[in-house]
Amino acid sequence: MKHLFFDLDNTLWDFDRNSKTVLQNLFKANNFEVKLGVDFEKFHSFYYEKNNELWHLYYFNKIKKEELRYRRFHDTFLNFGLNNLQLSKSIADDYVQISPYSKHLMPDCIEVLEHLVKDYHLHIITNGFAEVQNIKIDNCGLRNYFKQIIISEEHGLTKPNLEIFRLAEQLTNATSDKCMMIGDNWVSDIEGAIGAGWKAIYFGKTVPENNQQINVAVISDLIHLKKIL
Ligand SMILES: [Mg+2]
After folding, report:
1. What pLDDT, on a 0 to 100 scale, did the predictor assign at position 220?
2. Cα distance between residue 73 and residue 92, in whole Å
3. Domains in the chain and their CATH numbers?
């Protein structure tokens, strides 16, 4: 029996869509259009890049969770001329409280899991924060499909570090040749898995430049998994 390890955010749970909706509501409720002098789309595109940049630092232990949480807002506000650390922290708290209750999954997620669970052991490896990821998993009815749900924060290890993939093998009693990672993040999911000797399926549009020699399948929709697995 083979083991399929899924990433959670933007692989099963539609992080971008859910996050954008919550941010849009916070933006309106706090009248940021006036306070920052910017429309939501501009605010969001700066926040989006900043958030990715800070997550990247977090993966490599360069910043801590609390700093990541408020700095994505603080740096965005600063970019639009507002210097207010207290407000950044309170919006960061609101965002973390509200967003995990959003329910949009990636298209065809449940149909694909129903199909795969018949033939594979399914697991999750996610770099998110425990209190947030557990709410998402329960609230969207995902938990019962998965045998092991490995949340990086609970183990002090993040993808793409080799140790989290070795831990996943131990927890599932699987050897590396029986493991496959499916995820949307080239560095943390795909390079991490390949580095551990696993197979990988990249959920994205195209393989990033200079990585063509890496042997991975690429899917742009989850439903495609029904054909290739
Ligand atoms: Mg992801």
Report:
1. 96
2. 7
3. 2-13+105-228 (3.40.50.1000), 15-101 (1.10.150.240)
pLDDT tens by residue, 47-83: 999 999 999 898 888 999 999 999 999 999 999 999 9
Q: How far is the CA of 33 from the centre of ligand 1 (A)?
A: 29
Q: What is the DSSP letter of 146?
A: -
Q: How far is the CA of 37 from the centre of ligand 1 (A)?
A: 31
pLDDT tens per residue across span 112-149: 999 999 999 999 999 988 999 999 999 999 999 999 99
Name the nearest CA neighbour of 48 among 25, 75, 26, 8: 75
Distance CA 170, CA 228 (A): 26
Q: How close is the Cα of 52 to the center of ligand 1, in Å?
A: 11
What spacing in Å lies between the alpha carbon of 75 and ligand 1's midpoint?
22
* Å from CA of 188 to ligand 1 middle: 8
Q: How much distance in Å is there from the Cα of 159 to the middle of ligand 1?
A: 11
If pLDDT is split at 50, 70 and 90, which confidence band does 201 have? Answer: very high
* pLDDT for the residue numbered 82: 97
Q: What's the CA gap between 138 and 92, in Å, rounded?
A: 22
